[in-house]
DNA sequence: AACTCGGGGCA
DNA sequence: TGCCCAGAGTT
């Protein structure tokens, strides 16, 4: 039983570090979150598909004029790929995205009565919608709790020891268990913001990191310099 | 598990 | 000018 007690103490200590990290991130990045406001779930889906491997700026620049011309699944489903490609050319990967968006619109028309589905399983049937995009739609459009794990969330949470870094789905469940539901939205923004500004993929700026004293990966990056 | 799509941002 | 990137699909 002594072993069990000791084990519990170690787990508690680790959890304390995780909570400290999350608290510092919260203080550091408060007010930096940007709301995802689109008038319909379908528009959010289109914008989220467009944002893959692309700077948000590129998407924000075109969505207003794009949705002024086309808004509904019905309207997108009748587009020719070349028409949509022209509209979204500045977002990168545009041929795939155009094809997927049109196909998704058709599927919503044909199989979902023109309404975008509200379960992850059904959302992931839509071309161009993977687990991350499905979770973005669930949480932002329908208020259904779902932690969207993109590459930033995946990398940063793994480096900080908040997750195992096995794969995005595992990270999703680990963060879901670690962070209180009412803070998922904030935590998501902190991790992404931190990943963009400080904990970047190559040569992370550990000296500027507000949690570098608590981070299990800090030493390794400092030594690598 | 590796490859592909791709223009824009940034060193 | 070259390298990298807020994913998802295919093989």
Automatic annotation (TrEMBL):
HhH-GPD domain mapped to chain residues: 50-197
Catalytic activity line of the entry: 2'-deoxyribonucleotide-(2'-deoxyribose 5'-phosphate)-2'-deoxyribonucleotide-DNA = a 3'-end 2'-deoxyribonucleotide-(2,3-dehydro-2,3-deoxyribose 5'-phosphate)-DNA + a 5'-end 5'-phospho-2'-deoxyribonucleoside-DNA + H(+)
Record text on cofactor binding: Binds 1 [4Fe-4S] cluster.
Residues the entry annotates as binding [4Fe-4S] cluster: 199, 206, 209, 215
Primary enzyme class: lyase
UniProt keyword Coiled coil present: no
Keywords: 4Fe-4S, DNA damage, DNA repair, DNA-binding, Endonuclease, Glycosidase, Hydrolase, Iron, Iron-sulfur, Lyase, Metal-binding, Nuclease
Pfam annotation, one family: HHH
GO molecular function, one term: endonuclease activity
Required co-factors: [4Fe-4S] cluster
Record has Mitochondrion as a keyword: no
Record function comment: DNA repair enzyme that has both DNA N-glycosylase activity and AP-lyase activity. The DNA N-glycosylase activity releases various damaged pyrimidines from DNA by cleaving the N-glycosidic bond, leaving an AP (apurinic/apyrimidinic) site. The AP-lyase activity cleaves the phosphodiester bond 3' to the AP site by a beta-elimination, leaving a 3'-terminal unsaturated sugar and a product with a terminal 5'-phosphate.
Family recorded in the similarity comment: Belongs to the Nth/MutY family.
Protein name (database record): Endonuclease III
Source organism of this protein record: Dehalobacterium formicoaceticum
């Amino acid at each position: 039983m002594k072993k069990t007690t000791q084990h519990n103490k170690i787990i508690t200590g680790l959890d304390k570090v995780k909570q400290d990290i999350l608290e510092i991130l919260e203080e550091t990045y408060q007010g930096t979150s940007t709301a995802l406001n689109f008038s319909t779930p379908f528009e959010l889906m289109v914008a989220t598909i467009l944002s893959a491997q692309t700077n948000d700026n590129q998407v924000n620049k075109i969505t207003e004029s794009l949705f002024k011309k086309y808004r509904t699944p019905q309207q997108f489903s009748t587009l020719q790929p070349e028409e949509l490609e022209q509209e979204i050319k500045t977002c990168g990967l545009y041929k795939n995205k155009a094809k997927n968006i049109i196909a998704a619109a058709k599927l919503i028309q044909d199989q979902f009565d023109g309404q975008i589905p509200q379960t992850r399983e059904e959302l992931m049937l839509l071309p161009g919608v993977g687990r991350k995009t499905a979770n973005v739609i669930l949480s932002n459009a329908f208020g259904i709790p779902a932690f969207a794990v993109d590459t930033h969330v995946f990398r940063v949470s793994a480096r900080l020891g908040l997750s195992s870094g096995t794969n995005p789905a595992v990270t999703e469940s680990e963060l879901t268990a670690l962070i209180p539901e009412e803070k998922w939205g904030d935590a998501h923004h902190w991790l992404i913001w931190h990943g963009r500004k400080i904990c970047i993929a190559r040569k992370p700026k550990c000296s500027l990191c507000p949690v570098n004293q608590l981070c299990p990966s800090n030493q390794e990056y400092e030594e690598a310099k």
